[in-house]
Design goal:
Elements (H helix, E strand, L loop, with lengths): L1 H10 L4 E2 L12 H10 L3 E8 L5 E3 L11 H4 L17 H4 L36 H15 L4 E6 L2 H6 L4 H11 L11 E3 L2 H15 L5 E5 L29 H5 L5 E4 L17 H7 L3 E2 L16 H12 L4
Parallel strand pairs: 1-2, 2-4, 5-6, 6-7, 7-8
Antiparallel strand pairs: 2-3
Helix pairs in contact: 2-5, 7-8
Bound molecules: SN-glycerol-3-phosphate and calcium ion.
SN-glycerol-3-phosphate (G3P) binds next to β2.
Length: about 325
């Protein structure tokens, strides 16, 4: 009986492929998503941004410079900060650029890659694809393999999109609905760093569209300068995350979300993961929230952790995260 309980508990712990199998292939490419599907991921993650003509594409940054040859193809299209923003390009234009491995910096002239030596720009032919195309790919892979791999889209910087005349949350929901993702049936989680937009999705958009998807509140540190929140005017649109780590915060989040996605560093009492886990996970789970921390990366293990296996052991067995 104990074994059955343990198996049931383990079955609820899911593996989410962050930007696809991005430890092996360039992030957010069709190849990386296909590989993650084949490797046995339970969910595939999609970061979403919008084009000038209102198409959702799967890309982490609001701008193209860290993962593409856009500066070579469209040198005249940079904004004042030197970056080329997806929202300034049509999908047809984006089809002309090549995607490659992520650079460590957003300086196009900087050759330092996150994964040096593999899939350089001139040795590969990866491109940008739409959210709809990825959903169709996953549907087909599920059909041909008999698997039921889910999706885990992230609405990137809704405030930036609003400033540029785009309602990315509404567009995301519409695309999800068009592809049959409408209920909390285990096939989808929808995530964002923006609590205001998540509340809008929960209380306005989903009721209007007759949808009921589980939402995940991503949590960062207020002073972290996350790339998706950097605005073209050079300022940072930081959300206030501090309240999310204060006592009682999980009750507030549970009113509009079904889970939290904290940075893994927030699960421990210090940056040394060998120290005791803090109370965040238990507090969230006590309020019925699932906990899916980001990001497990072989090249960025927490201090005191020596391997991915060790981190999995720590997160799944000792800390007890849900994914
Ligand atoms: O989706 C969770 C995690 O991916 C958030 O961080 O910057 O990789 O989108 P980021
Ligand atoms: Ca993400």
């Amino acid at each position: 009986l104990l074994m059955l309980f343990q198996m049931a508990a383990l079955a609820q712990q899911i593996v989410i492929a962050h930007r696809g199998a991005s430890g092996y292939l360039p992030e957010h490419t069709i190849a990386a998503k296909s590989m993650a599907h084949a490797m046995g991921a339970d969910y595939l993650e999609q970061d979403l941004v919008m084009t000038r003509d209102g198409e959702l594409v799967v890309l982490h940054d609001l701008y193209l410079d860290r993962v593409s040859d856009v500066a070579t193809k469209f040198p005249e299209r940079a904004r004042e900060d030197g970056r080329h923003y997806v929202v300034d390009f049509t999908l047809d234009e984006l089809r002309q650029i090549k995607i490659t491995e992520r650079r460590k910096t957003d300086n196009a002239a900087d050759p330092t890659m996150a994964f040096p030596g593999r899939f350089g720009l001139h040795k590969s032919h990866f491109g940008i694809h739409t959210f709809a195309e990825e959903l169709e790919l996953i549907r087909e892979l599920n059909r041909t393999t008999g698997k039921t791999v889910g999706i885990y889209p992230e609405i990137k910087s809704p405030s930036f999109h609003h400033q540029n005349g785009q309602d990315i949350a509404a567009a995301t929901l519409q695309t999800l609905k068009d592809h049959g993702y409408t209920t909390n049936d285990g096939s989808v989680y929808l995530q964002s760093f923006d609590p205001h937009e998540l509340k809008r999705v929960k209380t306005e958009l989903m009721p209007q569209m007759q949808m009921d998807l589980p939402l995940v509140q991503l949590i960062a540190r207020t002073n972290w300068k996350l790339t998706q929140e950097r605005l073209p005017n050079g300022q940072w649109a930081n959300y206030d995350y501090d309240w999310m780590l204060a006592p009682g915060a999980m009750e507030v989040i549970a009113q509009y979300a079904d889970g939290i996605g904290p940075h893994i560093g927030m699960l421990f009492d210090s940056n040394d993961a060998k120290l005791a886990p803090n109370a965040l996970v238990k507090q969230a789970q006590a309020r019925g929230l699932v906990v899916h921390p980001y990001t497990v990366r072989a090249d960025a293990l927490p201090k005191g952790v020596n391997s991915i296996d060790e981190l999995h052991e720590l997160l799944f067995k000792q800390v007890g995260v849900d994914g």
